[in-house]
Design goal:
Blueprint (H helix, E strand, L loop, with lengths): L6 E4 L12 H15 L4 E7 L4 E9 L5 E2 L2 E4 L4 H21 L5 E8 L2 H4 L2 H13 L4 E2 L8 H7 L20 H20 L8 E5 L3 H12 L3 E5 L3 H10 L4 E2 L3 H5 L5 E4 L8 H6 L4 E2 L12 H7 L3 E2 L2 H4 L2 H9 L5 H25 L3 H17 L9
Helix pairs in contact: 1-2, 2-15, 4-5, 6-7, 6-13, 6-14, 13-14, 14-15
């Protein structure tokens, strides 16, 4: 794991008070660190009571450059649950950005609350001021509960934002290349497992058919795959069925996971693959768009022991961050898509390393990411005149 210095900044009150600290908040983070979340460079608690803003920004590493990661707007049951999520997600972004070859470290932010009830121009602009207060150490973008239009609003207070709408110079919806990248990773896993990149005739189970999942279904159908879907939101499955009548809808999650699948593709929230799921799966491959798919340490070994090929989530779902990172240099879709196509080659490389070294693919991916963070990150120690 990347070594780092834990620096806690708890921000309370209005955006104008950025930098205020709180010992209780530090104690909360230290407790989280003691439970295996050490290594983050900076964690910022942000509150603006008049707008209802209650956010946490976590920067895991800036060894490769400014931390880049999206803002998740979600009704967490507690601040502790939100903190645990943002710590995990920011670490994953560090590894994702490293494997994607980006000159960015990893960070993430969460806004606590129901976006349907709380989201407003004032809240998003207050949040933008907190991001701006970090001086470019963190660059934000879209995630669950936020969209490109929201980033346009955040951008009215902050220059360190990407994933904006096309009319505002942005890359637009990052789910386009996220789904494309997952498809490339799935093709690489198929070649590793069956000797062919084609998914024609294979049965793929997609859990979660929101922005990423439904676009992935488009790629799978075009490639000739049989597709089974499940989503807690019936409207989401109805949208997919209206576009692709041949798609089957599973009655429940257990039916999907335990069904006759060749590939299981988790594209909803994290933690989808726990011990019970691993034991129930008949699929030979897991490759999906969700973040932090493995529910706890040790699951990757259980999967390997059962002959299930796991394509590391933070590798195959990196198409979205590639897309929004490209925007920072003046967005060019074809350039970003070409870079996302490299996910195929990187996935092949990691699966080959895992096979040769006798380790789970998740371990091989971590090692490759850590090597780049170490080798490229150390170059910042060579002083350059400005």
């Amino acid at each position: 794991m990347m070594p780092g210095v834990t620096a806690v900044t708890n921000v309370f009150g209005s955006a104008g008070r950025a930098g205020a600290t709180d010992d209780a908040g530090a104690a909360r983070l230290q407790g989280a660190s003691a439970n295996g979340q050490a290594g983050h460079e900076q964690v910022v608690f942000c509150q603006d009571p008049p707008t209802g803003l209650h956010a946490i920004i976590a920067i895991y590493s800036t060894a490769l450059g400014p931390a880049l990661g999206g803002t998740r707007f979600y009704p967490y049951p507690s601040e502790g649950a939100a903190l645990a999520d943002v710590l995990n997600l920011s670490r994953a972004m560090t590894y994702k950005n490293a494997l994607a070859g980006l000159d960015h470290g990893g960070g993430k932010a969460v806004i606590i609350g129901d976006p349907a009830r709380l989201k407003s121009e004032a809240l998003l602009r207050a949040y933008g001021r907190f991001v701006q207060s970090l001086g470019g150490r963190y660059v934000t973008a879209c995630d669950i509960g936020t969209c490109s239009e929201d980033m346009d609003i955040v951008g009215r207070e902050c220059i360190h934002v990407t994933g904006r709408t096309g009319p505002n110079g942005g890359a637009g919806d990052s789910s386009v290349l996220t789904a494309f990248g997952v498809f490339q990773g799935m093709r690489a896993a198929a070649e590793h497992t069956w000797g062919s990149t084609s998914l024609d005739g294979r049965t793929v189970g997609v859990e979660g058919v929101g922005k990423v999942g439904r676009r992935l279904v488009d790629h799978l159908i075009s490639d000739g795959a049989r597709v089974v879907i499940y989503d807690v939101n019936a409207a989401a499955t109805d949208r997919v069925r209206a576009r692709h009548p041949a798609v089957t809808v599973a009655a429940d999650r257990a039916s999907l996971v335990g069904g006759q699948l060749d590939v299981y593709s988790p594209c909803a929230l994290g933690g989808a693959v726990d011990d019970d799921t691993a034991m129930a799966l008949r699929a030979r491959i897991i490759c999906g768009g969700a973040n932090n798919q493995l529910a706890q340490p040790g699951v990757e070994k259980l999967l390997a022991d059962h002959g299930i090929v796991y394509a590391p989530d933070y590798l195959v779902n990196s198409g979205g961050v590639i897309q929004v990172a490209d925007e920072l240099a003046g967005f060019n879709f074809e350039r970003a898509k070409a870079r996302a196509e490299d996910i195929f080659g990187t996935t092949k490389k990691i699966l080959a390393i895992a096979h040769e070294e006798g380790v789970p693919p998740a371990v091989a991916a971590d090692r490759l990411a850590e090597r780049r963070i170490s080798e490229v990150g150390r170059l910042r120690g060579i002083w350059l005149a400005r």
